[in-house]
Design a protein that fits this description.
11% strand, 4-stranded mixed β-sheet
């Protein structure tokens, strides 16, 4: 992917240099506050364990300094350029296919941990989108995890991850995400999981549309880039993650879709460039 020297986004909130200040353990959460955090984390797919883990030092404020390496800075620049591409692409697509303006989200860069309206964000959560804030959250170390632990290296694999989280914002802008989350909140766990899969696969499809449009508008894709994205989609499929962790593959617990499904919907978006082809909610077979 050709990204060096290109426009970066101004919609970056860089929290990496802030001292990580928090109360050890549950940080004073109790009663309804604790329940609210659990519910938000459950329905939005966010790991809230940084807020919930108790310890003997509960109530004591701690600070942790964060070292920013040259590699971290390179990742930040890369993410900024990729985010700028999403802004240009979705502004164009909304004008042509939706007939409404696109309101770009903010992307929060952090290292180690931070807080969001959807709960605690840490290396364990992975990247996520928080609808109440209209912000995507990304730990700069996640790309290292992708390459070294998940076998999903490459700059376009990383770009696919950013594009996927921004695709959730696109769903929010289109009114899809609020509607689905309302239904999930009234559903049992298995139904909620099934709806989550459809949300995630649509985001993969939107990511494919983004990749196609990036190539058409900027010509920045290089040989092997799409293969990197497809490999990343495969490596983070629910079935593959379960097998690699030595767990049983239980489809009713899936929240993101199988490797084959994630690849298939990304490919559909890339081949079509049409938002309507990404309607994962009206098909029987994913």
């Amino acid at each position: 992917m050709k990204w060096q020297g290109r426009r970066g986004s101004s919609n970056i909130e860089d929290r990496r240099r802030r001292p990580s200040r928090r109360k050890a353990g549950a940080g004073g959460l109790s009663g309804l506050g604790l329940i609210a955090v659990v519910v938000i984390g459950y329905f939005l797919g966010v790991d809230v364990t940084p807020l919930l883990n108790g310890s003997a030092t509960d109530g004591i404020a701690t600070e942790r300094s964060v070292e920013i390496t040259p590699a971290d800075e390179r990742v930040a620049q890369f993410v900024s350029v990729t985010l700028a591409d999403t802004e240009d692409v979705w502004t164009d697509i909304f004008a042509r296919q939706v007939g409404e303006p696109y309101e770009a989200p903010t992307l929060v860069l952090f290292k180690g941990q931070t807080q969001s309206a959807c709960g605690g964000a840490s290396a364990a959560t992975g990247p996520f989108y928080c609808p109440p804030e209209e912000k995507a959250f990304l730990d700069t170390d996640f790309f290292v995890t992708m390459e070294q632990r998940l076998g999903a290296g490459g700059d376009f694999a990383a770009a696919y991850v950013v594009a996927h989280e921004i695709a959730h914002h696109v769903q929010n802008e289109l009114g899809i995400l609020p509607q689905v989350n309302r239904i999930r909140a009234q559903s049992d766990a298995e139904t909620s999981n099934a709806l989550s899969v459809r949300v995630e696969l649509q985001a993969d499809c939107f990511s494919g549309i983004w990749a196609r449009t990036v190539q058409e508008k900027f010509g920045t894709l290089e040989r092997g880039d799409i293969a990197e994205a497809m490999n990343a989609a495969a490596q983070i499929g629910d079935d593959t993650l379960a097998r690699n962790a030595g767990r049983a593959v239980r489809p009713h617990t899936f929240t993101h879709g199988t490797s084959a499904q994630r690849q298939r919907w990304f490919q559909r978006g890339f081949e079509s460039g049409d938002l309507t082809i990404c309607d994962t909610f009206s098909v029987d077979q994913l």
